[in-house]
Write a structure and sequence with these properties.
mainly beta; five-stranded mixed β-sheet; globular; single chain; 277 residues; 18 strands; eleven-stranded mixed β-sheet
């Protein structure tokens, strides 16, 4: 099942992809459905509504107000090797805030305070349930589905503080979408999928989700040791090598660039880059 959230006739609506187009299920968001414990596979299959073709510029982030957005850094060894950090033995965790989210085809904003905007193509995990001390063998039962994420980072501000949080939370830098693909439609734990990032059509990142040092089940279980996870929470699982910061010379995003993040069987998240007005 593939869910999209978009605007139609001046309303925010939830739809599910079908062979004929996008079937509108109503105005209730995925955030709300997940918080109510709705089975997304059944809900999408049983729903009735008008079938439309959303305008390419009408997409919204698949979740607009997740309870928590937990990002994981240094989760691919090749990316750690291009960073100034040693490989950690425990997940490197930092938060993202809802105010930083943007949708498919919306511009990632290059802030006027810095010219060090960088891309990070990632797989995002959306939870349908949670708790504390979730056993690793039960962790994947908590997953509602998966989406794409571009954890765009303002490097200058990321490195001002050791927690990274400021540089990871500039407005309109967290691209999220365009679809939530339910877990039943993908390999368990989203294993073995090719992740690729392109800038202006040129491949800059390419890896398998098998290369993650802490896989989806491990991340859910480990995070739940400290944090009560909840339905609607999002875990952004880390980026592989190839970021602009790691190049010599460094290659940051500029106005007019087009960034695309793809994961096979999920789709492509596309965003232009625009200067802050």
């Amino acid at each position: 099942m593939r869910y999209v959230y978009f605007t139609h006739q001046q309303k925010s609506v939830l739809g599910v992809q079908t062979a004929e187009g996008t079937k509108i299920l109503g105005e209730e968001s995925l955030d709300s459905l997940l918080s109510r414990g709705v089975d997304l596979v059944r809900y999408g299959a049983e729903g009735h509504g008008e079938t439309v073709n959303p305008d390419e510029n009408s997409y919204l982030p698949v979740l607009t107000r997740p309870g928590k957005i937990i990002c994981v850094g240094l989760n691919y060894a090749d990316h750690t090797s291009e960073s100034p950090y040693a490989q950690p033995t425990y997940p490197t965790v930092f938060p993202r805030f809802n105010s930083s989210l943007l949708a498919h085809n919306q511009p990632i904003i290059l802030p006027k305070l810095s010219d060090s905007l960088d891309y990070e193509g990632e797989l995002a995990v959306i939870l349908k349930s949670g708790g504390r001390y979730i056993a690793e063998e039960e962790a994947l039962d908590c997953v509602a589905g998966y989406a794409l994420f571009n954890d765009a980072s303002v490097r200058e501000y990321q490195f001002i503080t050791p927690q990274w949080t400021v540089g990871k939370n500039f407005d309109a830098t967290g691209a999220f979408g365009p679809e939530l693909v339910t877990a039943d439609a993908l390999p368990r734990g989203a294993k073995g999928l090719r992740l690729e990032t392109r800038v202006n059509g040129n491949v800059v990142q390419s890896a398998s989700t098998d290369d993650m040092l802490f896989d989806v089940a491990t991340l859910i279980s480990t995070l739940s040791e400290a944090i009560t996870l909840e339905a609607g929470d999002v875990i952004v699982t880390g980026t592989p090598a190839g970021v602009g910061f790691g190049m010599n010379p460094k290659s940051y995003l500029k106005e007019g660039d087009i960034v695309e993040v793809s994961v096979e069987q999920i789709g492509t998240l596309r965003n232009p880059v625009a200067l802050e007005k």
